[in-house]
TrEMBL record:
Lineage: Eukaryota, Fungi, Dikarya, Ascomycota, Saccharomycotina
Organism of derivation: Lachancea dasiensis
Protein name: LADA_0E08944g1_1
Domain of life (superkingdom): Eukaryota
Keywords: Nucleotide-binding
Annotated GO biological process: endocytosis; Golgi to endosome transport; late endosome to vacuole transport via multivesicular body sorting pathway; multivesicular body assembly; protein localization to endosome; protein targeting to vacuole; reticulophagy; vacuole inheritance
GO cellular component terms, semicolon-separated: cytosol; early endosome; late endosome
Signal sequence bounds: none
Keyword Transport set for record: no
Part of the intact protein present: 2 to 174 of 214
Gene Ontology MF term list: GTP binding; GTPase activity
């Protein structure tokens, strides 16, 4: 008695924060050191078994480069879930993430489920400098009602948990 739930999910965030790398890790359990920037957007799917049902993620991975900014509404308009991604070593990318959260709350589906994702945690674990405090991001997540994760697409740390968290929240609705 296995039911399948489809979830339309969009990734948003500044260029080079690791959106495509998070998707590559989730879909293929792989990582590329020199991943090329996304042009426009990419579409990928992945199925996950959750207890007695299956979730099929239909993933729109958008391009972060400014010249593609006008395309984003096409991808988030019908989305049930969004990952707003920033780089924990790039403060500017967190400012951009705040803007995305605001825009989603103003323009996207009223009941969209949003996860705030601080990526590239491996850099800090290997001695690099953290530039976005965990507490600052947690505060934003709490105020805005977002799920919150820090991930590394490179090591794979916490990537599946983001998608499972979204899946659980949608299943509970
Ligand atoms: P756009 O498509 O231009 O918006 O960029 P993006 O957000 O999809 O970033 P992408 O996944 O292409 O990654 C950009 C660069 O960061 C690549 O060189 C990746 O290898 C690297 N990168 C991505 N995730 C991580 C991570 O978790 N840790 C480290 N150290 N590097 C990462
Ligand atoms: Mg990309």
């Amino acid at each position: 008695n296995t039911s399948v739930t489809s979830i339309k999910l969009v990734l948003l965030g500044e260029a080079a924060v690791g959106k495509s790398s998070i998707v590559l890790r989730f879909v293929s359990n792989d990582f590329a050191e020199n991943k090329e920037p996304t042009i426009g957007a990419a579409f990928l799917t992945q199925r996950v078994n959750m207890g007695d049902h299956t979730i099929k993620f239909e993933i729109w991975d958008t391009a972060g480069q400014e010249r593609f900014a006008s395309l984003a509404p096409m991808y988030y308009r019908n989305a049930q879930a969004a990952l707003v991604v920033y780089d924990v070593t790039k403060p500017q990318s967190f400012i951009k993430a705040r803007h995305w959260v605001k825009e989603l709350h103003e323009q996207a589906s009223r009941d969209i489920i949003i996860a705030l994702v601080g990526n590239k945690l491996d850099i800090i674990e290997n001695g690099g400098e953290r530039k976005v405090a965990r507490e600052e991001a947690e505060n934003l997540a709490q105020q805005e009602g977002l799920l919150f994760f820090e991930t590394s697409a490179k090591s794979g740390s916490n990537v599946n948990e983001v998608f499972l968290g979204i899946g659980q929240k949608i299943s509970l609705k």
